[in-house]
Structures are given as structure tokens and as C-alpha cells.
Amino acid sequence: MTDKEQTETVEETNSELKQFMINYTGQEHNPEDEMITVHMIIHTLAADFPELVYTIAEENFIRGYQLGLDDATVLEGKTSGDATAAE
Asked: For the chain, which terminal residue's Cβ has fewer other Cβ atoms within 10 angstroms, N or C?
């Protein structure tokens, strides 16, 4: 499933919290087709609970940044190793 497909669908409700979020989002957006998407839920959370969304986004950024640093360190090590081996 692609990222776009994930934000355009909501799987079956298997928890009380998930059902609450779907119902609340439905009341806020009132879509004509009565379909609630993950994108709608995120939009609702960002409007009503920005601290939560900000914290999740910040953690995601930090993890991505750390992964980039780790990749750069590994790449630098491989490049240095290749240069040493060529000498």
C-alpha cells in the first residue's frame, strides 16, 4: 500500500479510540460520501490538538535527521576505506 493509499483510507475500527476519532472527524468534516480518511483525521488533529501533531512531526524529523547522519557516517567510512585501499 502506498503512502497516498494509506491517507485515503481508514481500515476497520478495532478500538474505541479509533472509532471515536472517526466519529469526531465525521462530525467536523461531514463528508458527502460519509467516508473518513486518515488525511481528514490528521487535519482534525492538527486543528484541535496541534501539540500532539507537532510532537509526532518533531520526533519524525529527529529520526530522519539521525538516519541521514548515520548514512553519511557509513558512506564516509566506505569512502575513506576505499581511498586507503587504493594507496
From this structure: C
